[in-house]
Specification:
Strand content: under 5%
CATH architecture of the domain at 78-261 and 295-304: Orthogonal Bundle
Distance between the termini: 59 Å
CATH superfamily of the domain at 78-261 and 295-304: MetI-like
Largest sheet: 2 strands, antiparallel
Radius of gyration: 25 Å
Mean pLDDT: 88
Order of helices and strands: HEEHHHHHHHHHHHH
Number of strands: 2
CATH class of the domain at 78-261 and 295-304: Mainly Alpha
Length: 305
């Protein structure tokens, strides 16, 4: 009787961790794994969203239409959207990684009032995308925006931040950096606290300067966190949608219409939506993000060796 009771307790103790893990596993398969494979299926069809019975299996033709067939309108949409997306990634990722790192380094020495400043820098991270764009549309308004009014005091004419290039890209990057650096700053701050202090003390004895300490001690010590922040920031920038959608509406002349905007319009927009083509675009974008993430990991690891 005691043996049976012991066996029951042993089995229960082994199953208990799985019981806690099961809800997360269900959510993961329901909202990630299943949509991923179902998306691959959708990409092989010409899919009429208003009449699903008119689905037509086309195999890899949707990929041909966006990647190769220059006569297809989807070809122009895809490459223009991808070019604009890459532009945003190249412009936004460096300041989104470097700026919070510098802020965290400053906060790490704990200057007077550093907790207040840390809270101020993190606060915009709590805003919704609609709130963010509303604030910045007011700040960047050509005629009455606070930024142009400030610049006018030093003799600079009104700048059309949201209606002309290259100002539109500058505006999108500014609002994105202001919005999101707080999260990366918190991660960097926690990482810098874990760097062994004796390494810096030894470097002081050897006469190392601040730059040498950063290159040979700080960055190698937080390499894993740096990889995580860089990859997650890059993925988020590739998936940019709200800022150009709400701030510039993809203009001027579709110069800020990123790929996610085209995917959304093709899948659910007016006219004749085609989720098959939109899903094919999303899959190609996902593959590109995976490749770039792998390259980033290899580069950062090599820099730390």
């Amino acid at each position: 009787m005691q043996t049976k009771q012991w066996d029951a307790r042993s089995i229960a103790s082994k199953l208990l961790p799985g019981a806690f893990f099961l809800p997360h596993l269900i959510i993961f398969f329901t909202f990630f794994i299943f949509p991923f494979f179902y998306g691959i299926v959708i990409s092989t069809y010409n899919w009429n969203l208003f009449n699903p019975d008119l689905r037509e299996f086309v195999g890899l033709d949707n990929f041909r239409r966006i990647l190769i067939d220059s006569d297809s309108i989807y070809y122009r949409y895809f490459w223009n959207g991808l070019r604009n997306t890459f532009t945003f990634v190249v412009l936004s990722v460096p300041p989104l990684v470097i700026t919070p790192f510098l802020l965290a380094s400053l906060m790490n020495v704990e200057p007077k009032g550093y907790k207040v400043f840390r809270a101020i820098f993190y606060l915009p991270n709590l805003f919704s995308i609609a709130t963010l764009v509303l604030i910045w549309r007011w700040v960047l308004n050509t005629n009455v925006g606070i930024l142009n009014l400030t610049l006018a005091h030093v003799g600079i004419d009104n700048i059309p931040w949201l209606s002309q290039q290259p100002f539109a890209w500058v505006a999108l990057v500014m609002m994105t950096v202001w919005w999101t650096i707080g999260g990366n700053m918190i991660i960097f701050t926690a990482s810098l606290k874990e760097v062994p202090e004796h390494l810096y003390e030894a470097s002081d004895i050897e006469g190392a300067n601040t730059w040498q300490k950063m290159i040979y001690i700080t960055l190698p010590s937080i390499r894993n966190q740096l990889i995580y922040i860089t990859i997650m920031t890059t993925i988020a920038s590739f998936n940019v949608f709200g800022q150009p959608q709400l701030a510039t509406q993809g203009g001027p002349e579709e110069s800020t219409t990123v790929l996610m905007m085209y995917i959304r319009n093709i899948a659910f927009g007016g006219g004749r939506p085609n989720p098959g083509v939109a899903t094919a675009m999303a899959i190609v974008l996902g593959v590109i993000m995976i490749i770039i993430s792998v390259v980033q990991v290899k580069i950062i690891k090599r820099m730390g060796d």
